[in-house]
Amino acid sequence: MISLTELVHCLKSRIIIILIALVGVVCSIQSVQADNFTQCSQSFYAGIYPEFINNKLSADTYPLCFDGFAVMYSGVSRTPLWSAEHLTRKRLQQAKTIDREDSFHEESRLPESKRAKLSDYSGSGYDRGHLAPNGDMANRSQQYDSFSLANIAPQSPRNNRYIWRNIESAIRYLTQQYGEVYTVTGVAFNDKKTKQLSGRVLVPSHFFKAVYIPAINQAGVYYAPNDESERIDIISIEDLAAETGIDVLPVLERQTKAEALALPLKAGDDIDEPESSNDEPVWLLLIWAILEWLVEQLQSRNA
What we know:
Layout: H1 4-34, E1 51-52, E2 61-66, E3 69-74, E4 79-88, H2 89-95, H3 118-121, E5 127-130, H4 140-146, E6 152-155, H5 157-178, E7 180-188, E8 196-197, E9 201-202, E10 206-213, E11 218-225, E12 233-235, H6 237-244, E13 246-247, H7 254-258, H8 282-302
Antiparallel strand pairs: 1-13, 2-3, 3-4, 4-7, 5-6, 7-10, 8-9, 10-11, 11-12
């Protein structure tokens, strides 16, 4: 007959084994979530995805890889917080051959209680606004993924159909001009009182689209209130981080983040690139010119 001491020791051993197993399961789940974006790292510049400066935003988030783009989805707002794309001339050329087929659908990979539903948007007065737009999608698989409600947020009709459409066209124009562009499109909730659809989906106060052009190492952001005002501001990556609590392009140098590229407001508008400046101060250039003149004089005398 087993003693009480032996029984307690046996139970302790089993509990320790169970706890170790549970820790392993938790760690494996966390590593799957953390590594999820490795499957779509090509959507991010240098493979580095946006970082939350405001840690409150990271609560109840779900990283999702789609065909052609990546999304950070919030179970709190039941909208994406941002969507990232890498656009190239080839991709956009292929996208021109795909006609639009609407296929809005719930995202099955999300817990049912956290999903936005089609009924949430019905009769709401808001458009189902794409973050990664259908017009960027190069094949049917990408197009279908773009209509997932995990890539959709409530958007003011005039903002969606006019302002944002022009912006998306301008980005495609820049891609044709420079060969490739990285974008991060997202939402902000800066109003003191946030509206809700069906008491479930939060309505963003603002939409943004951050743009980075590797060919000229410059970046800028379109930042617009989610209303009918048709207002839009061009701000820097640094300013966007202050507004939203998200560093959308963490790998960029500080100077690139601090300067706002004068982005076009419609396709066909050229960027006013700053004139190349010499970092050398004028007095140093003058000294170099004098030294070069002296060297030339000495060489001429020795000839």
